Amino acid sequence: TAPGPRSYTTLRDEAVKLFNSLQQLESERDPVPLMQGVLQTCLDLPPLVDEIYCQLVKQTTEPPAPGGQGDLHYWQLLTCMSCTFLPSPPVLRFLRFHLDRTENRFPGSEMAKYACFIREALGKTKGRECVPSLEEILVLMQRQEMICTVHCPGAPACSVAISSHTTAEEVAQELVSRLGLSQSPNLFALYEQSRRREQPVGSATLLADVLTRFE
C-alpha cells in the first residue's frame, strides 16, 4: 500500500490501469476528474511519471485525427503534467523534441499552442505538493491563469491572477505594490485560514497547492 489516501497494488498493475485511463480519456465527455486521477496516481507513485509522459507523447504522435477532441484531451493532460511534474532528463529531451516537431508540423494549430505552453511550463516547474485542483485543470486546459482572491486587513479584497508556478511571496509583493506599501518598514505575508486554523503561507509555497487544499 502506498502512502496517502489511496491504496495501490504493484507498479506494473498501476501502470496498466493508467494506460486504460488514457485510452478512456480520448472519448471522455468530462475529462477533468479522470485527468486529476491520473495526476494523483503519479504524485503518489513517482516512478510512473516517466511512463505517463512517454504514453502521452506516443498518443499525440501521428494521431488519427490531429486536433480532434480526443487528441486535444491528450494534449490537455500533457499540459497538466508539465505544470506538476518534471520527467527524468532523458524523457525531458524526448519530450522537448516532440514539442518542437509538433510546432513545426502544425504551426498555428491548437496542438502547437499547447506545445509552446508546455515548453514554457517545463522551464518553471519544480514539483508540487498537491495535484492541480479541478479548477486549475479547467484553466490549464484553456492555457489560462486562475484568479485568486486575497482578503487584506483594512482594504478591499484583491483579485490576483496566478499560474501553477506563482509563489506566495510573488503574490504578497504584488499586493504590497498595489496597496502603496512599498516603502513600509513592515514585513508582509499571506495567511491561509480555514475553520480549524490560521497559519502563514511559506514564501516559496505555490498558491496553486494552497487552493487545492481548500478544494
TrEMBL record:
InterPro entries: Actin_motor_Myosin, FERM_domain, MyTH4_dom, MyTH4_dom_sf, RA_dom. GO terms for biological process: signal transduction. It comes from the Eukaryota. Residues 146-215 form the FERM domain. Transmembrane segments: none annotated. One of its GO terms (cellular component) is cytoskeleton. Residues 144-215 form the Ras-associating domain. Residues 1-141 form the MyTH4 domain. PANTHER family: AGAP003327-PA, PLECKSTRIN HOMOLOGY DOMAIN-CONTAINING FAMILY H MEMBER 3. This is PKHH3 protein. It comes from Calcarius ornatus. The lineage of its organism: Eukaryota, Metazoa, Chordata, Craniata, Vertebrata.
